[in-house]
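Support case: adenosine monophosphate complex. Customer-provided input:
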Amino acid sequence: MTNDNNTASSSSCFSELGLISPLLARLVDLEYKQPTPIQAQAIPSVLNGSDLIAGANTGSGKTATFALPLLQQLFNAKSSGKPSTNKKGNYAATLVLVPTRELATQVADSIRSYAFHLNGTVKTVAVFGGVSVNRQMLALRGGTDILVATPGRLLDLISSNAIKLDQVKTLVLDEADRMLSLGFTEELSALLAMMPKQKQTLLFSATFPEQVKALTSKLLNNPVEVQVQSADASTLVQRVFTVNKGQKTAALAHLIKENQWRQVLVFVNSKSGCSHLASKLAKHDITAEVFHGNQGQGARSRVLQAFKDGEIEVLIATDIAARGLDIEKLPVVINYDLPRSPADYMHRIGRSGRAGEIGLALSLIDYEDYHHFKIIEKKNKFRLEREEIAGFEIDESLIDPDFSANKPVVPPPGSGKKKKAKKAAKKESSIYADIWSGNVKSDSK
Ligand code: AMP
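Agent response - structure generated as follows:
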């Protein structure tokens, strides 16, 4: 953890964080025994009105980190007869911006759940695209205390005068990196321009690329900084299995059956890849459902609920499921395809081993993935021992000897680094030979 002088010291008890009794009672109902590190570090500062930058992923308990203190502020203001806004027009007192529809629903549900003992004092509305706008307009009538929104739909609602942002007292940017990487930069600037300058801002991001850094320096005022790991290293086990090219599906089916996994989230890189893998698994007598951006909102919600309820054992998803989805106690996450970005690897594996539960994050790599997996390890600062699955041992004769020469270590023509790159490729080639022969220790970084 890194934090500045303002940061609260760690606390092992919710009652020490300054939360009011109706919220504490709800935490007892929910069987939250103690605050997660981010909650312990950030809740007192948020209650005091400080701005916050938190390096945290879903799974860290970040929703409660902002929801509990914000609910408390709103509840106290209302109970004291001094509401935090003057409630003109279609006001929103607190705005929580999230990148996806799923996250909008999930965050709003969590907020309503935490507010259970506040006797309906705090109104929460979620708005997001992909569904009819009319019901959302109705819900916004008379304004709302907390608005959870995706940027595009929020702009639509603003342009039809269903909501205004001029009374926003607190802004939460949830998964800021995801929001910017999904191309919401312009929407975000437009929305920020509509809010009062003076407000409390809380920014949560799993990673801090330049764009996010620029946003934080522009937006935040002397913020408290909290950095926590997305998944508890002691409860999330990561493993990587080397398999022959063309044998991933058989190896996956074997693992699912052998281990009798009952709730597995499998990541692939494309929408068509989801259905393709599902039909290949069907040939191994494994029924799987798919979850991707081409499905309608209704279908996605149904599939997700069935998966959460344990009715679907294998869910094959694109990265749309990598962030924000909170599936309680998800035991196994598998990378069938490696994610393109090392940051997405962390988001994917963060679906498992959540809030202290034991989880397994497993990647299947064939020789074409090897180089990329090394990059993922390097960027995320971990190193896993390559393992083989009994019955699926590596057959070196299947490795394309020319493969490594085609890898991106060769720079584009004209860059003047060809010789060096060829040498690197040759070295890489011998590393491949080592890895497939099981000589993993020789794979020095
Ligand atoms: P989040 O990171 O907000 O998506 O939360 C991840 C999961 O952890 C959710 O299922 C929460 O209900 C749960 N959770 C959050 N805080 C705690 C806590 N202090 N103790 C136990 N579970 C928690």
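The chain has 15 helices and 14 strands.

Case will auto-close in a few days if no follow-up is received.
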